[in-house]
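So, can you check?
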Amino acid sequence: MSNVDVTTFPTPIAQAKVREQPHNIEAEQGLLGAILINNRAYEKVSDFLQSEHFSDPIHGRIFEACGKLIERGQIANPVTLKPIFDNEEALVEAGGANYLVQLAASVVTVVNAEDYGKSIKDSFLRRELIEIGEEVVNSAYSYDLDQTAVNQIELAESQLFSLAENDTAEGGLRNFSEALLESVKMAEAAYKRDGGLAGLATGFKDLDKQLGGLHPSDLLVLAGRPAMGKTALATNIAYHVATAHQPDGSRPVVAFFSLEMSAEQLATRILSENTEISSEKIRRGELSSNDFQKLVHSSQKLESALLFIDDTPAIPVSTLRTRARRLLRQHDLSLIIVDYLQLMRPSPGQRTDNRVQEVSVITQGLKAIAKELNVPILALSQLSRAVEQREDKRPVLADLRESGSIEQDSDVVMFVFREEYYLDKAEPVQRPDEGDERYHERHDKWIDLRSRAHGKAEIIIGKQRHGPTGTVTLHFNGPTTRFSDFIEDDRLPERND
């Protein structure tokens, strides 16, 4: 048999360059050694470094054990750690307790401990980035009817932002002088602003006076029973903020997440509020030529307003965060409005069978977004039916549906109450055994009460971290669902007929 010269070619696997995931074992060993010989090294990295950031699980376990001992006020060194790891199979394979001694002995100085920690964290973030990238690629290749390309982009964006947040999250102690400087700057801005407001003006003088405006990083909850005018008040505020001009010449941007109404319905309502033409007439097209001109003029004015509407139903907190972040990058952002929070869903992986717990996750998420983006969030909320069972229908904090978390996480809780709504449903009817005189007496009393309540709406401030609670009276126009400042009869100017 003749010898055949067979030329071997490198396989694709052989040709491919094997790439290891980012890691820095030397930095991990150097940091652990530094901690073992001087526990103060742990203090330099404990604010930003966690056990899962280590590429070697053994190193992560050692770091975690050191942290537990140090936080208890004990010394972490090879001697105190030995009993913990005597039965640790992974450490035994690495060399047992002698490995701890080697870590401590190999360190020359602890000066570089913080740099070691940053290198470990950087490698971890790179590994996470690779994992996200692989998920994005695999997801894009797999065709799923329930997962559109847009949804995949939003999920990827959310993951990337969460990773970035993990790295840049601010915390720890701040020098009082820094906080004091920020406080003075806020006071200066309020002094220069008309009305002396520290936050965004709502467009209602008495409400702004009570709240001091809508403050950045605040979560404000506006609650009420159906038909009280929650959405109407929210759209009024959104329109005012989006069309107001700031002292520095900037234009505020408002993001309105409408989970109950479509964008078209919301736009119709805003048109109705500004033209004083009922939304019913607008929908039916029952317009005079004058009404139509009003609509055209108002729509031209509204067209320039930086008001963005998202009518995605049952939007998760993570998606809302992603879209708000995107808007902040593209146009800046001044205010976020959510209508309403009970229709939201927790982020994927946070859903439970306990609705109270879910609402708690949602309110915590909204508060976190408000702090992260440094903008106020106005979230609308439904009230429980307990209000209807009382003679006095004015809501209190306990009436909030799933109230514990909403009340706890919010900075301001406001209620919308219109006594006129309940009086309209309570018109007296003459009883069979009731005389005319008694009936007319009750009916006249009802007419008097209804007359005094006509066109009035109460904004009850049940909680406010920054200021007092109390009640603000506004005027409410039912057909156009428009709120406005309330003027008492004795404050009206005299007429000269």
Observations:
- The mean pLDDT is 78.
- The chain has two domains: 25-160, 196-415.
- DSSP finds 20 helices and nine strands in the chain.
